[in-house]
């Protein structure tokens, strides 16, 4: 599938800011499932800083802006060709050891409920891949998709207790459950093209990857009850949503920040 | 030099000068309080002084009625009062501690000893200490610190920042002290030229350690015009507005020589010095002393902001 | 009754390195000693070396007690220590390069993956990044204790920002001022080259992008930090700026310092703040001490951070056990310095041994430092031991245990005159283009009779440490 992406993020400040710094992880991953046709990232009026590829294979680019600033606008435009690999992250070059993704974070801490959910889900199941599927299924069942009930700092445990949440909460819960049963797991941020049914959907998306011995990293999207296919564009990963955030930024000054994001994905004519 | 270091040095200068002014103000208050004034009593004078030092509100909240002993404690020893002598000395020493390596050990010693000594004084019973003893102690310490700066500090940018701090604070304080005399201390305009008026002027001159110099320079009766000339326009007077502004400009020029770059702060200071050098007492009184002083207080504030923006904020390119 | 090795007296004979100190010691009447002690204290206070103890509040201007009786090493004793320390510093850096690279030592099964990769000090953010010259830990502080003429043990490694070097330098300075004749009578190797060596070490690891004389800065958490004196002392000796996070900013792929002449590029940052505070964009978002965007600049080769973020994984107390293995694995050498035998409470059989032998062991938290959260079995009451037992059982992974070592003693001036007190040693190894070690270090002394805890936070003092020239 060939997907057109347009992603504009605007930070507005109610008082003029002295300067800003942005660290962007907004570049499609390089693996067999996707090929970049064109891609551009720009911080309007900003200065491009250094860029590098980190141990997990993600490209990170930093930008800085001089004040006075009323807003910071980050524009992403591009076209990517995707292939359905049934969630398998084939051909992705990275150095980070999977064991590094067994560490708990605040957002992915497995409380008693998550531990029980995980242990129940894999009972009698052998094989990492089967376990991962079972866990993703259990999470999808335990947390219903419902926007607006959770927020950016909701933890996996809180979302499970609530029984509702969005893709971030599903991913966190799956990661917490997988790590609890000894499977390395991580948070993935990216885009999802879900416009084929004509309904409006949130195109910025997140899911989880679980490390399966012999197969490598495999994506699971409990929110949609599937593995990432050619409708997905993968950007980057981390221990949790904060660690994998596509945009991290900080502005100096006293102004309050408000955020406006528009993401549009469209299937291009082949 | 790091902008923050320059800022620390600048504030050492300002705080030491401010501590000195606060002590001088206390002396003015104590002297005036000794005089039986026509129907006002010392109470209103003390109130005026609190108002002049910008501490009236804080004092009222903490102590209520202005009783002299309380006022002395508040303006001298109260660490909750950001303008008290002890607060200023504490902050000057703290700024120095941060930039220990940018100053000489003699200067550090002077600042550190001053702070150690005031904490000793703080512990003594207030009834054991006369106010003059305290204010003289402040003058002495301030002179020692100035001496350490002049005698030991390298004549580099740091030296200029310290002195710009001193000079701007002094210019501001002198302008305020004169203004206070007329618009706060003197109960009504009718009393201009009265015995009370003259007495207050004498006290003010004394507090600025300038009454003898004044008499040498002018002789005869004390008049508002002579005083205004002395404290505003006479370069012989170390605390005169013109002297302080010229000192600030000299150090700003020192900076531009060292940095091979002159900017908005220098331009503004030069304009200000040019302006005050051109003027005379008649013009000042024509404009109105109060109006003139307030214009200068605002100008000095603007110059401080320019110094901050150009050197201390770290935002300059 | 344990016997302790006395570094000055052996079977009533004065050991050679201390030969010339005996007369000095005997010729010091109590009054002179008190006078000298007061003089030393006045000097320290004047200079401004003070030390605030973490979490204790109290007097921020407290001095660390200085003992005037020097601790002495013979040249041959030092040579061996020096080789051992440099070897260890090389192995620790090789380990760091490896675990942020291919992880050969883990693949080879020499160290459990969990200990490394799930370690809190392991920074995912720097995986795959090679710092200049492959050096992660540029200043390695190795804590040593001695139990006999030739027995030294490494107590722990400090790969992040070992502190205390200012005491090494000032102790010497004050001794030279107060007892110049001692320095004429003894041929003592100088330590005052440390600051220049440190500057050269830091300059040698400037990023490849730096095409001129590198600008170095020391990054401090600020003047409220208990080690602020040391930060400003080192900056002054090296002639570099002492900066706080707010003095730096990131632009165009480089780090800049805010100066009165405008921005100035910084090439090497010797940071004295923890990893988690370095960059709010990468680590703790609430950090006010760091520089937003610093890690991006670091990772794209615009600045060197010393020690490298992530270096802490090498000095973890659980990893410590494996350092001799690192020496063999990376260097193909036998370790010159021994580790203290260590039991990992994370391992059930070792935990069992530890719980059965608490009264004779020293138990430490894996991540603790500064002598906090530890149990010294032989010096503890039954109740203290039982209370600690409960803590270990509650979270065994968090503890290691070691035998109580018979720490050597050196003569120390005490209330009653001169008496033996237990000591340790922290030399500072510099790793850059070359590996350098100034002949000396910080000797810490437990001033309380019989005490084995030398930490300054627990009432320890310091001594000048001499290495005699050949």
UniProtKB/TrEMBL annotation, chain A:
Residues 159-224 form the Transglutaminase-like domain. InterPro entries: Bac_transglu_N, Papain-like_cys_pep_sf, Transglutaminase-like. It comes from the Bacteria. This is Transglutaminase. It comes from Pseudothioclava arenosa.
Automatic annotation (TrEMBL), chain B:
Residues 1-312 form the DUF403 domain. Pfam families: Alpha-E (PF04168). This is DUF403 domain-containing protein. It comes from Pseudothioclava arenosa. The lineage of its organism: Bacteria, Pseudomonadati, Pseudomonadota, Alphaproteobacteria, Rhodobacterales.
TrEMBL record, chain C:
Residues 70-446 form the Circularly permuted ATP-grasp type domain. InterPro entries: ATP-dep_Glu-Cys_Ligase-2, CP_ATPgrasp_2, UCP005522. It comes from the Bacteria. This is Circularly permuted ATP-grasp type 2 domain-containing protein. SUPFAM superfamilies: Glutathione synthetase ATP-binding domain-like.
């Amino acid at each position: 599938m060939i997907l057109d992406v347009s992603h504009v993020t605007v930070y507005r400040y109610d008082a003029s800011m002295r300067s800003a710094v942005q660290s962007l992880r907004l570049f499609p991953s390089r693996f067999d499932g996707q090929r970049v046709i064109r891609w551009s990232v720009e911080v309007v009026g900003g200065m491009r800083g250094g860029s590098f590829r980190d141990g997990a294979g993600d490209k990170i680019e930093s930008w800085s802006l001089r004040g006075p600033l009323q807003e910071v606008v980050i524009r992403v435009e591009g076209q990517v060709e995707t292939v359905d690999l049934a969630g398998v992250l084939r051909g992705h070059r990275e150095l980070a050891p999977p064991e590094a993704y067994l560490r708990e974070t605040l957002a992915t801490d497995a409380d008693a409920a998550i531990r029980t959910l995980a242990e129940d889900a894999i009972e009698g199941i052998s094989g990492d891949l089967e376990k991962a599927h079972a866990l993703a299924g259990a999470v999808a069942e335990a947390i219903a998709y419902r926007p607006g009930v959770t927020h950016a700092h909701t933890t996996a445990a809180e979302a499970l207790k609530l029984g509702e949440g969005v893709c971030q909460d599903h991913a966190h819960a799956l990661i917490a459950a997988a790590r609890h049963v000894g499977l390395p797991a991580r948070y993935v941020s990216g885009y999802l093209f879900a416009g084929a049914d004509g309904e409006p959907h949130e195109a910025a998306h997140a899911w989880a990857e679980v490390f399966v011995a012999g197969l490598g990293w495999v994506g699971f999207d409990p929110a949609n009850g599937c593995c990432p296919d050619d409708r997905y564009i993968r950007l980057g990963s981390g221990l949790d949503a904060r660690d994998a955030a596509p945009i991290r930024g900080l502005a100096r000054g006293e102004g309050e920040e408000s955020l406006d994001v528009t993401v549009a994905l469209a299937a291009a004519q082949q | 030099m790091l902008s923050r270091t320059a800022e620390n040095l600048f504030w050492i200068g300002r705080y030491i000068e401010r501590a000195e002014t606060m002590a001088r103000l206390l002396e003015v208050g104590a002297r005036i309080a000794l005089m039986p004034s026509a129907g006002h009593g010392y109470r209103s004078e003390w109130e005026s002084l609190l108002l002049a030092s910008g501490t009236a509100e804080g004092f009222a909240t903490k102590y209520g009625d202005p009783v002299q002993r309380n006022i002395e404690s508040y303006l001298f020893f109260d660490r909750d009062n950001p303008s008290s002598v002890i607060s200023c000395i504490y902050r000057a020493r703290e700024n120095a501690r941060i930039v220990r390596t940018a100053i000489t050990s003699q200067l550090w010693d002077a600042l550190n000893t001053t702070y150690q000594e005031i904490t000793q004084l703080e512990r003594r019973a207030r009834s054991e200490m006369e106010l003059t003893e305290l204010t003289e102690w402040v003058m002495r310490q301030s002179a020692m610190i100035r001496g350490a700066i002049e005698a030991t500090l390298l004549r580099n940018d740091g030296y200029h920042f310290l002195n710009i701090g001193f000079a701007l604070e002094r210019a501001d304080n002198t302008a305020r002290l004169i203004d206070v005399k007329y618009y706060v201390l003197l109960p009504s305009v009718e009393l201009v030229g009265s015995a009370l008026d003259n007495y207050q002027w004498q006290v003010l001159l004394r507090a600025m350690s300038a009454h003898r110099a004044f008499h040498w320079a002018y002789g005869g009766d004390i008049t508002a015009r002579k005083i205004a000339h002395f404290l505003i326009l006479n370069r012989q007077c170390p605390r005169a507005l013109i002297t302080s502004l010229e000192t600030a400009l000299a150090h700003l020029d020192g900076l531009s020589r060292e940095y091979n770059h002159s900017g908005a702060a220098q331009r503004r200071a030069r304009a200000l010095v040019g302006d005050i050098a051109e003027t005379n007492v008649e013009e000042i009184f024509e404009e109105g002393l109060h109006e003139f002083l307030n214009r200068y207080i605002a100008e000095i504030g603007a110059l401080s902001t320019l110094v901050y923006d150009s050197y201390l904020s770290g935002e300059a390119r | 009754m344990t016997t302790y090795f006395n570094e000055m007296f052996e079977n009533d004979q004065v050991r050679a390195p201390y030969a010339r100190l005996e007369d000095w010691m005997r010729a010091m009447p109590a009054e002179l000693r008190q006078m000298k002690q007061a003089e030393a204290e006045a000097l320290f206070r004047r200079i401004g070396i003070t030390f605030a103890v973490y979490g204790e509040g109290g007097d921020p201007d407290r001095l660390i007690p200085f003992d005037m009786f020097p601790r002495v090493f013979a040249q041959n004793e030092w040579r061996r220590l020096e080789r051992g320390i440099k070897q260890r510093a090389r192995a620790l850096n090789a380990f760091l390069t490896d675990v942020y690279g291919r992880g050969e030592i883990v693949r080879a099964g020499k160290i459990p993956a969990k200990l490394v990769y799930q370690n809190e000090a392991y920074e995912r953010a720097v995986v795959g990044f090679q710092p200049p010259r492959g050096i992660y830990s540029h200043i390695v502080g190795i804590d040593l204790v001695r139990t006999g003429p030739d027995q030294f043990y490494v107590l722990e490694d400090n790969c992040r920002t070992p502190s205390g070097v200012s005491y090494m330098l000032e102790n010497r300075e004050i001794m030279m001022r107060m007892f110049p004749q001692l320095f004429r009578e003894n041929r003592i190797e100088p330590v005052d080259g440390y600051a220049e060596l440190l500057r050269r070490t830091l300059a040698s690891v400037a990023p490849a992008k730096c095409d001129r004389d590198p600008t170095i800065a020391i990054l401090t958490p600020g003047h409220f930090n208990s080690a602020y004196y040391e930060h400003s002392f080192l900056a002054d000796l090296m002639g570099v700026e002492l900066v706080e996070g707010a003095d730096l900013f990131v632009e165009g792929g480089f780090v800049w310092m805010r100066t009165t002449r405008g921005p100035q590029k910084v090439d090497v940052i010797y940071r004295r703040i923890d990893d988690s505070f370095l960059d709010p964009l990468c680590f703790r978002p609430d950090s006010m001490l760091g520089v937003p965007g610093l890690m991006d600049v670091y990772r794209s080769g615009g600045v060197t951070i010393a020690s490298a973020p992530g270096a802490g994984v090498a000095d973890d107390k659980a990893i410590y056990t494996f350092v001799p293995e690192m020496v063999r694995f990376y260097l193909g050498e036998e370790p010159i310095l021994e580790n203290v035998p260590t039991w990992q409470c994370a391992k059930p059989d070792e935990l069992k041994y530890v719980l059965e032998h608490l009264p004779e062991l020293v138990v430490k938290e894996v991540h603790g430092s500064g002598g906090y959260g530890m149990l010294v079995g032989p010096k503890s009451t039954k109740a203290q031991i039982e209370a600690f037992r409960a803590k270990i059982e509650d979270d065994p992974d968090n503890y290691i245990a070691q035998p109580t070592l018979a720490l050597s003693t050196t003569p120390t001036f005490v209330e009653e005159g001169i008496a033996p007190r237990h000591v340790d040693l922290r030399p500072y190894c510099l790793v850059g283009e070359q590996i350098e070690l100034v002949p000396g270090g910080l000797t810490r002394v437990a001033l309380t009779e019989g005490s084995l805890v030398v930490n300054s936070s627990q009432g320890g003092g310091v001594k000048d440490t001499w290495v005699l020239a050949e």
